[in-house]
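Memo to structure team: turn this sequence into structure tokens by end of day. - J.P.
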Amino acid sequence: MADMIDLTTLLTVGVAFWVVAASPGPANISNAAIAMRYGRRASLVYGLGLSVALVFWGVLAATGMGAVLLASIWLLSVLKLLGGLYLLWLAWNAGRSAMRPGASAPTEIGAGRWFWRGVILNLSNPKSVIAWIAALSMGLNPNDTLLSVVLTTLVCVLVAFFNNLSYSLVFSMGGMMAIYYRGRRWIEGTTAALFATGAFALIRSAVSR
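Reply from structure team:
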């Protein structure tokens, strides 16, 4: 069909979104850390939560509400502040774990809690909607049909799920988990530092507007 978006454009959008989605941000770092410490099942459920929240931002961007959000300074600032505080909480937990000399047995956490932790992390990250808008703008034009919007959004959704699934599978491999336990304190200390850096960047951005 002439009005449908072509496969080359869909592939371009998918690759562009994958580059952004696979970059080592808070979501991917936390997913990798959970996979290495708690195993594949916990990471898969956590990754599912990350993906669901990312789909929410995608729908928001595809319907035009993402642009409205970015234009609303106060709402964007609130989201950044909440996201920064959540990252600080993650940094505190990772740092506290890094300070313990011995590796304690992982605390059992229900699947529901892992899922909602993933949802909360990506919902509190307004940068996700920026990534969505950038990806969708590469493949869509003002005169595109609803089908084109749906197909482009669906490609990005599939990429998001594939990315989180890949992190869960790769970092829960036996070798990765062994590496984690050998260098646990260094890994968790680095994770805490990265979370804290991201948190302060979000909070500074929120209060400087």
